[in-house]
């Protein structure tokens, strides 16, 4: 839209939501000199990512793993140190990190002269929103980055003091002795893993037949094995009949007739886009039954000047992807191509124990597509670095085309998998001839490192070729 046309509005771009999606869009556009404003209904900026999702859950996980690791140190054991951290102690570090994130992100808006309007934004028409029903704000473009929240079915009493969802679970006052996690998607599995590491008894109830079906089968099998080995009771193919909140616990009645009782119940089954009470009735498009908005490849809704990014458009529902999508929407409205943002190349990092990460195709997908591929594997237990640190549980697997040797997928579980994966991702994104498994064989890596797993896996795979 030409400047003269944009000038008739209060802003060139108005962004709704200050999570990674909104921040990515706002910063991309503000840095090019456009007049950008944002709306945020929560008292602090940063989005669900900073306050209820990624940051608190990962900081809490770090508090657990670092404490448990310290306690399992032979010296500590010899000294007879057997403390059990309280929820309050584990939460303390998390709150400090959230505070740091908020002030850092706040400075991005300040430095780029992006005013933050506090309150609930609602569309009044295609170019106007009201904030908390206050003075309307007009803009030439909008980015809807309102995120998502846990889906709450009407037959679950979330006011019961022992029934939680992922937005509230870290507020638990006391550490319970048992938790039933209903829903074994990424969030449910991560929390099951974290709480098990604290010594809490866990029932993980899966509505499907496998854990995290989108992962490579071997990785899923490894996750199931290790969770069970740690003592998590996993029940597949179950469906909730009803939940009974009692004074001394919560009873989950399953349609299969099973009854599970635990101190606390965590609902982790599905999410809902934040599009209610949003004035969508004043726009020519609707949200689906999950509250999500349809967009095209440029993240435009059916109105080309209104974009939507992040969790509100559905999968992959990751902070990492939301940020890139926000930037892509910003670039598009500025008239630039977002082709170099590699929007289809989103790795997954799953912070269970063991940690999981994956990028590219799985064996199942390649087999279905009849791609002639080969596999190279490296077990962490045979790496010097893993032996030194004790992180011997894990595996790296490279899938590559057996004729061109192009890397087609990398799948990893074990310590720091979500970092290690990026080496494979970088090679996969090189131009032809440079995106092959040969890179890992011909390149000298530091020793001892976990990255050495790439060399070991590549040699293992190449040796299968004939
Ligand atoms: C427990 C948990 C763990 C997770 N872990 C990871 C992880 O490890 N890695 C990862 O990549 N992703 C993770 N995610 C997902 C990640 O948090 C989301 O994908 C990400 O936050 C989505 O960003 P967003 O910008 O779309 O929305 P959000 O971060 O949810 O931000 C949306 C913002 O919009 C505001 N808002 C909504 N409606 C309005 C309105 N009408 N007016 C004004 N403001 C409004 C909200 O208050 C909120 O601040 C996790 C999620 C959960 C729940």
TrEMBL record:
Pfam families: Pyr_redox_2 (PF07992), Pyr_redox_dim (PF02852). NAD(+) binds at residues 183-190, 270. The keyword Ribosomal protein does not apply. Residues 346-457 form the Pyridine nucleotide-disulphide oxidoreductase dimerisation domain. GO terms for molecular function: dihydrolipoyl dehydrogenase (NADH) activity; flavin adenine dinucleotide binding; NAD(P)+ transhydrogenase (Si-specific) activity. Conversion of NADPH, generated by peripheral catabolic pathways, to NADH, which can enter the respiratory chain for energy generation. This is Soluble pyridine nucleotide transhydrogenase. It comes from Allorhodopirellula solitaria. The lineage of its organism: Bacteria, Pseudomonadati, Planctomycetota, Planctomycetia, Pirellulales.
């Amino acid at each position: 839209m030409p400047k003269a046309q944009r000038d008739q509005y209060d802003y060139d771009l108005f962004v709704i939501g200050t999570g990674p999606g909104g921040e990515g869009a706002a910063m991309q556009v503000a840095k090019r000199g456009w007049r950008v404003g944002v709306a945020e209904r929560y008292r602090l900026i940063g989005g669900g990512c900073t306050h209820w999702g990624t940051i608190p859950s990962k900081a809490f996980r770090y508090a657990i793993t670092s404490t448990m690791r310290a306690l399992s140190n032979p010296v500590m054991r010899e000294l007879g140190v057997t403390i059990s951290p309280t929820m309050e102690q584990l939460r303390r570090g998390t709150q400090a990190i959230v505070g740091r994130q908020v002030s850092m992100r706040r400075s991005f808006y300040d430095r780029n002269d992006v005013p933050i309007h506090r309150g609930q934004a609602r569309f009044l028409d295609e170019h106007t929103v009201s904030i908390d029903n206050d003075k309307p704000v007009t803009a030439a473009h909008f980015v809807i980055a309102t995120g998502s929240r846990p889906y709450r079915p009407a037959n679950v009493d979330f006011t019961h003091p022992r029934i939680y969802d992922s937005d509230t679970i870290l507020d638990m006052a006391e550490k319970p002795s048992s938790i039933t996690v209903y829903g074994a998607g990424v969030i449910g599995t991560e929390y099951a893993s974290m709480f098990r590491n604290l010594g809490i008894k866990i029932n993980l109830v899966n509505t499907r037949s496998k854990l995290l079906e989108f992962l490579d089968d071997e990785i899923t099998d490894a996750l199931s094995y290790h969770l069970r080995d740690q003592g998590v009771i996993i029940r597949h193919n179950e469906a909730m009949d009803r939940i009974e909140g009692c004074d001394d616990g919560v009873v989950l009645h399953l349609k299969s007739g099973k009854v599970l009782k635990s101190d606390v119940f965590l609902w982790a089954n599905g999410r809902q886009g934040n599009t209610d009470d949003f004035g969508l009735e004043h726009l020519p498009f609707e949200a689906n039954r999950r509250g999500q908005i349809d967009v095209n490849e440029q993240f435009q809704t059916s109105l080309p000047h209104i974009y939507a990014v992040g969790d509100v458009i559905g999968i992959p529902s990751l902070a990492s992807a939301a940020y890139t999508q926000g930037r892509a929407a910003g670039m598009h409205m500025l008239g630039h191509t977002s082709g170099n943002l590699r929007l289809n190349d989103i790795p997954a990092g799953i912070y269970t124990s063991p940690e999981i990460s994956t990028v590219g195709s799985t064996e199942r997908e390649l087999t279905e597509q009849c791609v002639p591929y080969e596999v190279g594997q490296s077990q962490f237990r045979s790496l010097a670095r893993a032996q030194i640190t004790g992180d011997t549980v894990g595996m790296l697997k490279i899938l590559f085309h057996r004729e061109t040797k192009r890397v087609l997928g990398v799948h990893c579980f074990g310590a720091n998998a979500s970092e290690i994966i990026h080496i494979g991702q970088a090679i996969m994104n090189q131009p032809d001839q440079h995106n092959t498994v040969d890179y890992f064989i011909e390149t000298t890596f530091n020793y001892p490192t976990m990255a050495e797993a790439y060399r070991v896996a590549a040699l293992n795979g190449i040796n299968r070729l004939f």
